[in-house]
């Protein structure tokens, strides 16, 4: 079998040559990462997606052709695309930071496949370019390891998913992209029909209709790695188009679904990250909302929500007295923040991302005294009750901490505080690089929409009827 990289242009990649290749004549192609002239030698770091190999162009003792190659190598700029043929030799000064650091190629031939203008930013792991520049020159940004590695990781994930689901008799089916508009959670992108003026196709928000038809048609296990489209405003977790692992099964219960896809996630992490999850924790939807204010909580840090409703009313503070829920969270170690920084927190809490109507804060000073933004209405006795409630939560609450409080309707303010918790976790650097897996179960089927004045379907992973206690 031929070597994977053996083509008409190259025999090896720039990332695979090792000591065992010493003495071999090889041809590599790639981009010039860096070049340097050391008087008697010119060195070029040649890069492709697999790694970097050092190429040497000797001047001392070179024949006429060698001198020409040496002079030509000195004209190579960053990101020139070149083809080099030469002999692999062991390096005298090794580079332990590179897998190819024990060898180098002494060039016998050099061909410039494509010259390049000076790139607008460095093709390195840490770049000096802002995001707009990187997006404008996306083809250059893709050459950087962080972007390239993310693309390659995604490729590995999709291959693992296909293998895992295929082994469980799932059938991959491509469903139509031009469909009839159906009620979903966001607005559709529409495509005008040339053959039917005034009529439109919609781009699918999900293949929901088609996968249900497949189930009715007897194809009991379906999956698809599918592109979906939603016409909604951009946010960190919202894009107009996205890819999802879409699945459907017949003749199963919730536990079957949990087991199959927990197994898939565990296999992906074990294969690609070397991380072995324990059995996934499970949490009721109601508990997740009460403790974290969100149906997908980050469990890598504490800062749980604390219900202060009972100990906050009856003080002639309208914001609390009129509220269905008064909810707080304790942020550790930031009670000494300046007034300006706390004011910035108030702006974030009442901004579009969190959506709170107002924020009340309580500083717990190191000497045991208190400072509150609503001190006109509350006393030290009230503050002690708040802190005692917060102390009962994981992580506790005490001197040097800052208690943040919002109030309003239960569902809306739980969610607002959940978003605020997420924001503060990021702000305080609490969101570690580790992994915590969680299934949130028993979502409500419907939720009340205040704006529309009606019940709407709740977004959740399971929509099968709950049959416990129902007559057959």
Notable traits:
472 residues; alpha+beta; OB fold (Dihydrolipoamide Acetyltransferase, E2P); BirA Bifunctional Protein, domain 2; Gyrase A, domain 2; 3 domains; 5-stranded mixed beta barrel; 5-stranded antiparallel β-sheet
Structural topology:
Blueprint: E1 25-37, E2 41-48, E3 51-58, H1 64-73, E4 81-90, E5 103-114, H2 131-136, H3 138-141, H4 145-167, E6 171-172, E7 190-192, E8 200-202, H5 208-216, E9 221-229, E10 241-249, H6 254-273, E11 281-284, H7 285-292, E12 305-307, H8 318-321, E13 325-331, H9 339-350, E14 360-364, E15 370-372, H10 380-391, E16 402-408, H11 410-427, E17 438-441, E18 446-449, E19 454-457
Parallel strand pairs: 3-5, 6-9, 11-17
Antiparallel strand pairs: 1-2, 1-4, 2-3, 4-5, 7-8, 9-10, 12-13, 13-16, 14-15, 14-16, 18-19
Helix pairs in contact: 4-6
How does this structure look, described?
By secondary structure, this protein is α+β, with helices and mostly antiparallel strands. It folds into 3 domains: 1-143, Beta Barrel (OB fold (Dihydrolipoamide Acetyltransferase, E2P)); 147-273, Bira Bifunctional Protein, Domain 2 (BirA Bifunctional Protein, domain 2); 283-449, Gyrase A, domain 2. It has helices spanning 64-73, 131-136, 138-141, 145-167, 208-216, 254-273, 285-292, 318-321, 339-350, 380-391, 410-427, and strands spanning 25-37, 41-48, 51-58, 81-90, 103-114, 171-172, 190-192, 200-202, 221-229, 241-249, 281-284, 305-307, 325-331, 360-364, 370-372, 402-408, 438-441, 446-449, 454-457. The strands form 6 sheets. It has a 5-stranded mixed β-barrel with strand order 1-2-3-5-4. Strand 14 (360-364) and strand 15 (370-372) form a beta hairpin. Helix 4 (145-167) crosses helix 6 (254-273). The chain is globular.
